Amino acid sequence: MKKKIFATVLASVMVMGLAAGCGSSSESETEAPASEAAGTEAAGDAAEAGDAAEGGSHLIGVAMPTKDLQRWNQDGSNMKAELEAAGYEVDLQYASNDVQTQVSQVENMISNGCEMLVIASIDGSSLGEPLSQAKEAGIPVISYDRLLMNSDAVTYYATFDNYMVGQKQGEYLVEALDLENQDGPFNIELFTGDPADNNCVFFFGGAMDVLQPYIDSGKLVVKSGQTTFEQVATANWDSEKAQNRMDTIIAGNYSDGTTLHAVLCSNDSTALGVENALASSYTGEYPIITGQDCDIANVKNLVAGKQAMSVFKDTRTLASQVVKMVDAVMQGGEAEVNDTESYDNGTGIIPTYLCEPVVVTIDNYKEMLIDSGYYTEDQLQ
Question: What is one GO cellular-component annotation here (predicted)?
Answer without folding.
Answer: outer membrane-bounded periplasmic space
